[in-house]
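Quick one, C-alpha cells below:
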C-alpha cells in the first residue's frame, strides 16, 4: 500500500521544523548541556600524583575486613589471585623472563590503585564502595605488598606520598594521545 502524499508532506515538514529549531550550527535540537553537578558526578579521575583524590581515610584493619567481604572471592584471601588478578608479591621479578605483575611489583603510582578500585571494583558492583572503603582497601593491598605498616591510615596526603617500587623503572605509553611527555612538544 503506497504512503499518501499528505503523510510524506507532514513528515518532511516535521523534519525541516526540527532542524530549524536548532539553537546553534551542528546542534540538532536534541539533548541539553550537562549541569555542573552531572559533570562532577562523572569527573572522578585521579591523577598519578594524587590530584582529585577525595576527602576521607581508611585503615589497613578496616581494609582487611572490606577485602574479605568484597575482594577475596576473586583475588584470593591474601591477594594471591584466583578468578581475578594477583595483587600481591612479585617484587624483583619485573626484569626477569617471567615477571609477576602486581600492585606491589609493577604499578608505578599508588593513587592509581584508589582510582581503579573506585571506578571498577568490586566487579559485580563498580563504584559501590564509599571513599573511606576505597582508602581502606587500598591501604590493605599496599600493606600486603609491604608498602604500608599494619597500623597505617591512608588518606589523600599519605597515599600521594607513597613511592611505588617500580616508579623509576616504569616505561610510559609512547602514543601521543596519552600525553606522553616525550611527545608533548614538537611532535
Amino acid at each position: 500500500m503506497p504512503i499518501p502524499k499528505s503523510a510524506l508532506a507532514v513528515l518532511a515538514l516535521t523534519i525541516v521544523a526540527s532542524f530549524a529549531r536548532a539553537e546553534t550550527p551542528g546542534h540538532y535540537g536534541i539533548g541539553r548541556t550537562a549541569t555542573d553537578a552531572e559533570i562532577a558526578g562523572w569527573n572522578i579521575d585521579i591523577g598519578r600524583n594524587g590530584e582529585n583524590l577525595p576527602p576521607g581515610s581508611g585503615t589497613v584493619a578496616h581494609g582487611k575486613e572490606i577485602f574479605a567481604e568484597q575482594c577475596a572471592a576473586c583475588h584470593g584471601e591474601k591477594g594471591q589471585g584466583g578468578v581475578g588478578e594477583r595483587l600481591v608479591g612479585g617484587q624483583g621479578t619485573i626484569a626477569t623472563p617471567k615477571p609477576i605483575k602486581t600492585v606491589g611489583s609493577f604499578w608505578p603510582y599508588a593513587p592509581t590503585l584508589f582510582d581503579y578500585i573506585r571506578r571498577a571494583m568490586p566487579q559485580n558492583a563498580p563504584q559501590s564502595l564509599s571513599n573511606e572503603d576505597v582508602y581502606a582497601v587500598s591501604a590493605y593491598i599496599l600493606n600486603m605488598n609491604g608498602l604500608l605498616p599494619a597500623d597505617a591510615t591512608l588518606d589523600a596526603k599519605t597515599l600521594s606520598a607513597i613511592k611505588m617500587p617500580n616508579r623509576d623503572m616504569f616505561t610510559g605509553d609512547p602514543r601521543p594521545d596519552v600525553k606522553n611527555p616525550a611527545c608533548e612538544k614538537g611532535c
